Amino acid sequence: MTALKNDRFLRALLKQPVDVTPVWMMRQAGRYLPEYRASRAKAGDFMSLCMNPQFACEVTMQPLDRYPQLDAAILFSDILTIPDAMGQGLYFETGEGPRFKKVISTLADIEALPIPDPQKDLGYVMDAVSTIRRELNGRVPLIGFSGSPWTLATYMVEGGSSKDFRKTKAMLYDNPQAMHLLLDKLAQSVTSYLNGQILAGAQAVQIFDTWGGNLSAAAYQEFSLAYMRKIVSGLIREHEGRKVPVILFTKNGGLWLESIADAGADALGLDWTCDIGNARERVGHKVALQGNMDPTVLYAKPEAIRAEVGRILASYGSGSGHVFNLGHGITPEVDPEHAGAFLRAVHELSAQYHV
Ligand code: CP3
After folding, report:
1. What are the tens digits of pLDDT across the range 238-268?
2. Catalytic annotation on 237?
């Protein structure tokens, strides 16, 4: 394996010294980039990009080629590959987001769900990881990812995106045992899926708990965090002679950072609703922090973006343990020039905090 030429992302996740604060953007390969839209048109649709390792590799590399400041690559795929591999039949309706042909609604549906084998059932993802690693050739580390069990369950039970998670929450409160069986099967699936990605070459992994923050405090502990803790305890933590850091990102989880920091991960992802300096005081002795600029700041002018980057860096303060990111994914309407201004500002303004 080629040695990493730029490892400041991995170093910051382990709170080792860095020269500048590393940065990447959630959804960095996506519709705001004209080159991404061209690749998607060539492939036909979004899932064809994900399922063809050459296409997945091509779009993963696009933001890196455009922005030399990016300190990490993220596998181009989707969190819904797991429910698809469980037999639900994922498809995307243009402009309407993800949909499933088969929706999960009863205990019998859950009992019938298989645990996907990463090689046999999700081999296209494993192939994408190894193809991207080869293409990166040590340029920056590659991040693998999965959805959290709770977040995956919401899509599986609702049949797609939802505003209020009516069906999923009704199942949680009416039939907690059925929900626990579903979450347990998902935790097993996610653990072997992420371990498969690590063995194929992912150098860090992130668990996206996009909808955990929509639960009550008690339900979050029991139905989301408990399963992420279980996954973290089953992950391969060292590979190719290096630590493989784990990042947990619960969107809207700011109230529960102390308990999330106890789940065994190396780093927590923060959305923009919390102050990163305050988060550091609360949990910075246990974990590194990733985040947390409001992605809509990218609609403002480059000077305003730069000022907001400066404010977040100052709030975190001196020393390692911070990976700069947006607090959620970059949106399709963002001007790519503004994303560039954001990335440059992070490196330019952060050197002073690493002397
Ligand atoms: O960060 C990256 O660049 C890696 C790629 C990535 C995608 N999805 C590509 C994608 C990652 C990490 C995801 C994760 C994902 N997928 C999450 C968790 C992160 C989050 O945003 O909270 C969720 C909830 C999904 C499910 C999903 N996939 C939805 C709800 C949608 C439709 C909404 C939308 O933005 O259109 C997708 C589609 C999707 N996944 C796109 C991309 C680039 C857009 C599809 C397209 O090109 O039309």
Report:
1. 999 999 999 999 999 999 999 999 999 999 9
2. no
Out of 7, 78, 84, 271, the active site residue is 78
* Residue 293 backbone phi and psi in degrees, to 5: -75, 135
How is the chain split into domains, by residue range? Answer: 8-354
Q: What is the pLDDT of residues 267-288, one digit of tens each?
A: 999 999 999 999 999 999 999 9
Average pLDDT, the chain: 97
| Burial class of 239 by CB neighbour count within 10 A (0 to 12, 13 to 18, 19+) | middle
Residue 74 Cβ inside 6 Å of ligand 1? The answer reads yes
Q: Judge contact between 117 and 126, C-beta under 8 A.
A: no
Q: What is the pLDDT of residue 1?
A: 64
29 is in an annotated binding site: yes
d(CA 156, CA 216) in angstroms, rounded, equals: 20
From the DSSP assignment, how many helices (H) and strands (E) are in the chain?
17, 11
Answer whether 183's CB lies under 8 Å from 123's CB: no
Assign domain 8-354 one CATH number from 3.40.50.300, 3.30.390.10, 1.10.3720.10, 3.20.20.210: 3.20.20.210
Which atom of ligand 1 approaches the CA of 50 most closely? Answer: 9
Ligand 1 centroid – CA 93 distance (Å): 13
Rounded CA-CA distance 125/128 in Å is 5
- E-strand spans in 89-131? 90-93, 97-100
| Strand 97-100 to 90-93 pairing | antiparallel
What angle do helix axes 176-200 and 226-233 make, rounded to 10 degrees? 30
32 marked as part of a ligand binding site: no
Task: Please identify which residue in the block is written with the tokens 């949990």.
Answer: 283
- CA 138 from chain center: how many Å? 21
Q: From 287, 268, 247, select the one nearest 141 (Cα to Cα).
A: 247
Q: Residue 129 in contact with residue 76, Cβ under 8 Å?
A: no
Q: Is 277 annotated as a binding residue?
A: no
Task: Confirm whether 40 is a catalytic residue.
Answer: yes
Return all residues near 139 (Cβ < 8 A) that are at least 6 apart: 5, 6, 64, 73
121 is catalytic: no
